Amino acid sequence: MPNHQPVIFVHGLFGFGPNELGPLNYWGSAFMIPSPLPRFEASVGPISSAYDRACELAAQIKGAQVDYGAEHAAGAGHARFGRDYSGKGFVPNWSASNPVHLVGHSLGAQTIRCLQHLLASDSWGWGSDARWIASISAISGVLNGSTLTYFFGVDEQSGRLKPENGIVPIALMLELFTTATGRFLEVLYDFDLQHWGFSRRADETLLDYLNRVAGSPFFWGEDNAAYSLSLQGAYADNGVWQTHPATYYFAYITEQTTEGLISGRHYPDFRMNPALLGLSTYIGRKEFAYPPIPLTNFRSADWWENDGMVPTYSQRYPFTNGSHPVGGEFDASAPVSAFTPGRWYISWERGMDHLDICITPQLTQFGRQRRFYQRLLQRLAALGLE
To answer: What is the pLDDT of residues 142-158, one digit of tens each?
Structure first.
């Protein structure tokens, strides 16, 4: 039987919620097209860890105060409680009998997987379990980490940012993102780090704000986006976050590189967003002197094909650690009967970079992006939920 469960969209690294950056819309056409299902757009910490973002997402869906958990907060060194969304929940009657569909782009994919893990362990005492989530859709998901993190100063052996680099890597990442999406970030952006004791002052530049935050343990530990996005962080998480038997899992892979005939390395296609060209080139030739994770037969070359920010190898399904069954590949013509809960299904969106699928598509990609979200929403609505 078709369902009418709501869909929650969760942004990725340096992302933003509705109306936070003026006219800039993170989800492109996803909220501009007719939908058979109710839709909501979350706003979570743009550079926070997948764990902290999952706690913020849970509070927004349920309508509660953000609770990062006493044990986690004490270990990380930040406050236990955050913003209060009481009375403002997307789905106040959220439960196993009234589950939600979760759609995450980039780091958003890790965020929604972490949320299911926390629900499965009833972390907030709501009587929750994994069935509170009907489906998980990972779009350009960093399911196994991204080798791009090492370009921005992450240590290849630990997965953590290196303090000796200061804020230079983060500032560079921010500059590249603002170039790709416009200058709205520079004027309006806030990193939502209130639980760490930081808020951007009205007269403070982003660079000054970053320098102030850099004195905090936030940057140099494991409770931040950089570690969550590293191969080491994803390896640790994949060993804990399960693929649950009652949930549908979809991974949509974006890709826009070409393999060199002689070198075997991957190079960005000419249509890729100009801000991503250098990043794509780095991913497409990144070599590791030593395997960063204990993956059998680790090969650097497996991680070269990419979408400008994430290797396609990482986007497929969680595979570096844990047990995550795979159902196979599908395309737009696949009937809903082809999908079974508890398995990851994979669909390729070749010729689209990391930002074409949302935010700022190239001029030739607007129609394709629109059709992508139309099919995604129709697919989710057609799923038979017990």
So the answer is: 999 999 999 988 999 99
134 forms bridges with which residues in the sheet? none
**pLDDT grade, residue 360 (50/70/90)?**
confident
Return the pLDDT at 169: 64
Per-residue pLDDT at 378 exceeds 80: yes
Helix %, strand %, coil % of the chain (to 5):
35, 15, 50
**Pairing status of strand 326-329 against strand 266-268:** unpaired
Question: What is the arithmetic mean of pLDDT over 273-295?
Answer: 95
| Residue 335 phi, psi (nearest 5) | -75, 155
**Is the CB of residue 224 less than 8 Å from the CB of residue 161?**
yes
By the 8 A CB rule, do 257 and 309 touch?
A: no
Backbone φ/ψ region at 119: left (φ over 0), alpha (ψ -120 to 50), beta: alpha
270's tokens: 């000419």
From CA 15, how far away is CA 79, in angstroms rounded? 23
Helix 206-213 crosses helix 168-181 at what angle (to 10 degrees)?
Answer: 150
Query: 168 pLDDT exceeds 90?
Result: no
Instruction: Say which amino acid occupies 113.
Output: R
Name the amino acid, one letter, at 292.
P
Tallying the residues shown for the chain, one arrives at 386
CA-based nearest residue to 130, from 87, 99, 92: 99
Residue 343's Cβ-side half-sphere holds a number of Cα atoms within 13 Å equal to: 10
Overall pTM surpassing 0.85 (yes/no): yes
Write down the residue that tokens 């709205």 correspond to: 184
Residue 136, SS3 per DSSP: strand
Q: What is the dihedral of CA 343, 349, 352, 357, to 10 degrees?
A: -60
Is the pLDDT assigned to residue 12 strictly greater than 80?
Answer: yes
Q: CB–CB of 383/248 below 8 Å?
A: yes
| The token pair that represents 57 in the structure block | 């997402």
